[in-house]
Amino acid sequence: MTNPVYHRAARLAAPLLLVVLAACSQQELYGQLNERQANEMVAVLRNAGLQADKAPARDGKSYAVNTSASDFSRAVEVLHAGGFPRDSFDTLGQVFKKEGFVSSPTEERARFTHALSQELSNTLSNIDGVVQARVHVSVPERNPLADKPTPATASVFIKHRPGVDLSQQVGNIKGLVVNAMEGLPYDNVTVAMFPAEPIPPAAPRSALAVAWANYGVAIIAVAGVGALAVLAALLLGWRQRRKPTAPAGSQLPATQSPASPAPRRSSPLRAVGADAARVAADS
């Protein structure tokens, strides 16, 4: 038979434990990140007033960025506005790694064009204020019957942070692309710049939410201690109830002393002899 005290303890402690578990819940924002990417994303989120931390993955080679469940939606918006996570680009060594198959000239040209675009995009992404950069290169196939080869073209897409003016850097950007490609005229490079969306303002937070953000750890600790105290008090009360107690006004039965030996009874013959001796003495 189940003790009702345990049911009462469970009903009282369950809400406290649920609060503790809900406060400790974490959600993963992005995974398979290198340490540099994870550090940058954590710094951006913390500067925006959001709780964030990084955790190593099981493989020990990558990291994941986590945040609280209540800050998940805003964390995604802040990272998207900042261009995170950063795009990864292929290098020439990765595109032209040694393989067992022989590529055709068309495939080699396509791979070279892709590798060149990746290298240029990576270079432009490192400019201060650039959120995202893409370089699209078009290298026409050479016609041996043509007098002059068709010149190549390039289009550069740049998304920059709001408030950052990169219009003075258009000439330098075109020079980087022209000098990286053979036979690319300066006038055949187009640079298009677009401002990124500003980071959305944080929703007004109530005093309770601010207190929770500042003292959440202390609240969790107090809730856990309170749950343990409730369980300990109920267990102690249950143990005390199990001890037998006498009702009010009643007396415990007195201990009986050892029975005293019964008086000896004289035999009838001895009594007759005593009476005869008494009569003789009177006469």
TrEMBL record:
<feature type="domain" description="Flagellar M-ring N-terminal">
    <location>
        <begin position="25"/>
        <end position="192"/>
    </location>
</feature>
<keyword id="KW-0998">Cell outer membrane</keyword>
<dbReference type="Pfam" id="PF01514">
    <property type="entry name" value="YscJ_FliF"/>
</dbReference>
<dbReference type="InterPro" id="IPR003282">
    <property type="entry name" value="T3SS_SctJ"/>
</dbReference>
<feature type="region of interest" description="Disordered">
    <location>
        <begin position="244"/>
        <end position="274"/>
    </location>
</feature>
<dbReference type="InterPro" id="IPR045851">
    <property type="entry name" value="AMP-bd_C_sf"/>
</dbReference>
<keyword id="KW-0564">Palmitate</keyword>
<keyword id="KW-1133">Transmembrane helix</keyword>
<keyword id="KW-0812">Transmembrane</keyword>
<feature type="signal peptide">
    <location>
        <begin position="1"/>
        <end position="22"/>
    </location>
</feature>
<keyword id="KW-0449">Lipoprotein</keyword>
<feature type="compositionally biased region" description="Low complexity">
    <location>
        <begin position="250"/>
        <end position="274"/>
    </location>
</feature>
<keyword id="KW-0732">Signal</keyword>
<keyword id="KW-0472">Membrane</keyword>
<feature type="transmembrane region" description="Helical">
    <location>
        <begin position="212"/>
        <end position="236"/>
    </location>
</feature>
<dbReference type="InterPro" id="IPR043427">
    <property type="entry name" value="YscJ/FliF"/>
</dbReference>
<dbReference type="InterPro" id="IPR006182">
    <property type="entry name" value="FliF_N_dom"/>
</dbReference>
<comment type="similarity">
    <text>Belongs to the YscJ lipoprotein family.</text>
</comment>
<protein>
    <recommendedName>
        <fullName>Lipoprotein</fullName>
    </recommendedName>
</protein>
